[in-house]
Specification:
The chain has 4 helices and no strands. Helix 1 packs antiparallel against helix 2 and helix 2 runs antiparallel to helix 4. The protein has 174 residues and is mainly α. Helices cover 76% and strands 0% of the residues.
Length: 174
């Protein structure tokens, strides 16, 4: 449930500046959201493309039936799967959601338009609620993006470990 704000104690002389600063902050959350969406969709494309490329490599190895390369099947599959999950999380991060923008329909503020300071104070309270909602949405999207990036990195590290482990074991046995 959104927090209710009461800015009635803000002096009338600063209400216009108070409202202007709140509007700028709301616009800033929209710019951050656009940048986050671009970053998330770009990473989804990169991770998805890498996943498909690894699957193509697996298919090539299997089709060629070349035994020396079968050691690469498991690490390729692990990395491909992790990259696919990462791509899915990044894509989910940039899914369409409700996001608040600035401005008001005139019909919604007509009643408060009789007193400029009262209208701006009321609008600023509403803008703060919108800023809070936008920040919460950005935070949720960032968590999905961070998880996606972590899974992608862990998948690549796991694949490298799977490739290196047999050689490390072989060296230790001598």
């Amino acid at each position: 449930m959104p927090q209710k704000y009461d800015f009635s104690d803000v002096p009338d002389s600063v209400v216009p500046e108070f409202h202007r600063l709140a509007s700028e902050t709301l616009d800033g959350t929209i710019q951050i959201a656009l940048a986050a969406d671009v970053r998330a969709t770009t990473l989804a494309g990169i991770f998805g493309g890498a996943s498909v490329a690894l699957l193509a490599a697996i298919a090539t190895i299997l089709a060629g039936n070349s035994a020396p390369y079968h050691i690469l099947l498991l690490p390729s599959f692990v990395a491909s799967f992790c990259l696919f999950v990462a791509a899915t999380l990044c894509a989910w991060s940039s899914r369409p959601i409700d996001f608040f923008m600035g401005g008001y329909e005139p019909r919604l503020i007509q009643e408060s338009a009789k007193d400029m300071n009262w209208m701006l104070r009321f609008a600023t309270e509403d803008i703060q609620t919108r800023i809070d909602a936008n920040k919460a949405a950005l935070s949720t999207g960032a968590k999905f993006l961070q998880c996606g990036m972590a899974i992608a990195m862990l998948g690549v590290v796991a694949a490298v470990i799977i490739v290196i482990y047999p050689w490390v074991s072989l060296v230790r046995s001598f």
